[in-house]
Write the structure tokens for this entry.
Amino acid sequence: MILILRYAVSRFATMLLTLWVVSILVFVIINLPPGDFLSNQIAELRATGQAEGVAKAEFLRSEYALDRPLWEQYMIWAGFMPGPQGFAGLLQGNFGWSFEFDRPVSEIVGDALWLTVLVNLAAVLFVYVVALPLGVLAAAKSETWVDYTAGFVGYLGLATPNFLLALILFYYGHKYFNLPIGGLMSPEYEGQPMSWDKVKSILAHLIVPTFVIGTSGAAAMMQRLRANMLDELSKPYVETAIAKGMQPSKMLRKYPLRMAFNPFVADIGNLLPAMISGSVLVSVVLGLQTIGPYLLTALKSQDQFLAAFILMFVALLTLIGTMISDVLLMLLDPRIRMGGRTS
Amino acid sequence: MPLLDVSSLTIGFGKSDPVVQNVSFSVESGETLALVGESGSGKTLTCRSVMRILPATAQLRGGQINFSHDGVTQDLLKAPERQIRALRGSRISMIFQEPMRSLSPLHRIGNQVAEVLHLHQSISAADARQRVLAQFERVGFADPARAWSSYPFEMSGGMRQRAMIAMAMISKPDLLIADEPTTALDVTTQAQVLGLIKDLQAETGMSVILVTHDLGVVANMADQVVVMNKGRVMEAGSAKAVLGAPAHGYTKKLFAAAPMIPAVAAPARTMPHGDLILDIRNVTKTFALRTSGWRPPALITACRNVDLKLPRGKTLAVVGESGSGKTTCAQIALGAITPDAGGEVLFTPNAGEAPLQVHAMSKTQRRSFQRDAQMVFQDPYSSLSPRMRVQDALMEPAEIHRIGTRTQRREKAVEMIRMVGLSPDMLPRYPHAFSGGQRQRLSIARALTLDPKLLVCDEPTSALDVSVQDQILGLLEDIRDEAGLSYLFISHDLAVVARIADEVAVMRAGVIVEQAPPDTLFYNPQHPYTRALIAAQPEPDISRPIDLDLVAKGAGSPADWPEMFRFKDETAPALRELEPGHMVRCHA
């Protein structure tokens, strides 16, 4: 146990280090295209001859240190170095200013952050809840109609474009189950404090997005689990378990499933970012108030602080995901726990 | 009434002819029956049908398997699945061939063994633990409590097989089916595991069905013998009758092919050490184990102060158990790993030339060295790419070394495949179309395409059936004499090298403990470990059973050897020449 705790702590330290490196990368990449939001705006204002606008934009440029060298901009943004307003970077909890929306980043993404986490967690949960039994069943009953049906549904899920699935589900969901269309809550709750009715409204709105975002992930995961399980089922220890007189279902759960679980768990880390970036388009189509649409706008208009913050957030989720899966693997697999000794 | 009575058992796959045909035998209680045969003989399917754990595609086409227990007789082939499950693990249990893979790596040994008890009776966790610990002690675990909480990968192969035996014996079955239980183990471990099974049988009075390809094992264990080939019973009877005077031609063939340690009257030849093709001098190799954290890495010495001299045209065999350092020696000889400073590996491709320093080769030297020194691997199933035609595999070495034109390479491939006794029209085929023995011929052919001077053979026959092993050894001998090759032959089996080697070096714990021509070694073995190796070799003769005492004395820890041979702390005594050409590591 102490071993695992120590591992978790050291893993957390590496996570912070990685996050720091990621922040540099994100900042550099966002600044790679020539110009920035304000210099673009200034050029535009000059072209249309609006002098007072130019003055304001110039003021903002110095206010946000965009006229300084890149490394200084980074240090100020991250909060390692005092900027025009003193220490006011990520480290101090100041996420910067969005030029596009003319508001602080924290105000724009505030709710969207939690809704993003909510939607994607729901989708990840959906992936696991669907893929686990189907994958195991498909492997246990391989080459029977169960397997073929599961495989067919899986490929259908993989092959259908998400936005198309979204539109279809909206139509039929509304027609037959009276599911709400679009958004993550009924309009009357927007901007309202949390209440039981609001929660219910959010849950009802979650059904379709979860399904849409999770389907392809679940299909892929199911196929992977099936393949892993089939590999494991042909191993001699399965025969040993049968020779002990175990029931097939119990045997399946205790031995091969435990072994096939490793890649399943290791995927948690990859699943989160794939879903968040994959769900951008879906969020736009479904009108979800997640950070996806904001990211799209911010990247298009070079709204650098907004884009950088969202990317940092996605990176943080990824790192947390991999950390969780690493610690879980440690708990699940004694071979990993005992440190690289081969079997 | 016999405990188990198998009558006219027939099993097939798909529409093809049955692979087990009309097999009948019976096992009395307390008796051991050996099912003997080579791969593809149907012996494994036969023994598994008793447990009814056949592959899903296998069809039972007929026959009965009657099992008598508690006063009732049941046809195991017709009994409902639930009843079969109740018998598995409780009345009939099984030990498998590969102890490495037959235990789940994710569950503790204690958990996996105690599970059998929980499956078949209601027993409290504490009682189950008590019984499992007692069983662990019985099968020879020095510290049962530690074994209980160990994972399989923390144990050696022999220990894992002991755990498997504990698992099979925990509910005191009436019948134990052992499917090649010792094939994956070292000879000395094999002797001890066989001894353990025999002792347990004497204690509990159970019957044993022993599936094996090794007549030596049969002679040591069996009361009754059933010899199978291609799904049919060739010969059956008491061990005394079958082994004493084999009647069927196939049984006689098996006998002829079984490697044996010859009874030597008086040793004659010593190997001259004049013109050496390979000279390994004072080679030590230390590996650093990766450890977590910032502690200094643990050092493991794979081999220590090894001196090996291989004269041109001769065969030098290095024999030892797994972990003895023999494979490290082979890798050092081939320049695949560099020895620690101070060690030298000198290779003289042609007599009279200046030797090449293998331990410090330049890139160009390495290229020409690779042409002159080739390797034959242990597992012919994984050493040939399944996606490459045989001709491409045979032409590839020449392509890599840019030798000859495409036609010349093809001609060479034809020549090589003829040389190893296969036909040139097999060239366009893929490896899966060949049997294990044919594949090993192909890998020998591939090793020979560059006309090497030295061939390093790493257990080239240990994955093969006895009769095929016999053929491959014959082929290697012919090629050596024909092409004037020199062999460095790595093996765990003294009987195999007895035939081919001019000199044998026995390794244990990283050092050579005894070195002599095979005749001298068998006539006058000095070191307790060599004696244990020779004693552990099962002979197909029921009047010469394995002497377990001798095995235990020599194969145990070097600390238990007689004073004269004992290591002082980590330092081993020096190799001393007792008589010309016979070196033993001992104190004066």
